[in-house]
Amino acid sequence: MSPEQAVTLVSQAIWVIILMVSVLILPSLIVGLVVAIFQAVTQVNEQTLSFLPRLLVTLLSIILAGHWLIQEISDLFIFVFTAIPSEIG
Predict the structure, then answer these.
(1) 3-state secondary structure string across the chain
(2) Where does the record place a coiled coil (predicted)?
């Protein structure tokens, strides 16, 4: 395997990881920030108030983006497996 091919494979894998994490974590991060601002303004310091909305948003993002996430990881898997014969031969 040439260094260029290895870098291409690693960069595509890292890109898929970044996409998957951003789709799952960023909505939860935004909701957590909004809830934290709400808690700071109202001086309500309840831990479950920040946990439950983030959990629900994360589950909702998995439901809405699950098909796309599986497709992205499948495309990477197919890319790796189609590249194997050219690397061996």
Answers:
(1) CCHHHHHHHHHHHHHHHHHHHHHHHHHHHHHHHHHHHHHHHHCCCCHHHHHHHHHHHHHHHHHHHHHHHHHHHHHHHHHHHHHHHHHHC
(2) none
